[in-house]
Amino acid sequence: MYNEKVMDHFLHPRNVGEIENPDGVGQVGNPVCGDIMKIFLRIKDGRIEDIKFKTFGCGAAIATSSMVTELVKGKSLEEAMAVSNKVVAEALGGLPPQKLHCSNLAADALHAAIEDYKKKKAN
Amino acid sequence: MRRVYLDHAATTPVHPEVLEEMLPYLKEEFGNPSSIYSWGREAKAAVEKARTRLANLLGADPAEIVFTSGGTEADNFALRGVAAANRQRGNHIITTKIEHHAILHTAEQLEKEGFRVTYLPVDKYGLVRPEDLEEALTPDTILVSIMFANNEIGTIEPIAELARIAKSKGVIFHTDAVQAVGNVPINVKELGVDLLSLSGHKIYGPKGVGALYIRRGTRIEPLLLGGAQERKWRAGTENVPGIVGLGKAAELAARELPQRIKHLTELRDLLIEGILEKIDYVRLNGHRTQRLPGNANFCFEFVEGESLLLNLDLAGIAASSGSACTSGSLEPSHVLTALGIPPEIAHGSLRLTLGRNNTREDVEYVLSVLPDIVAKLRAMSPLTPGGGKENV
Question: How near does any CA of chain B get to the CA of A103, in Å?
Answer without folding.
Answer: 13
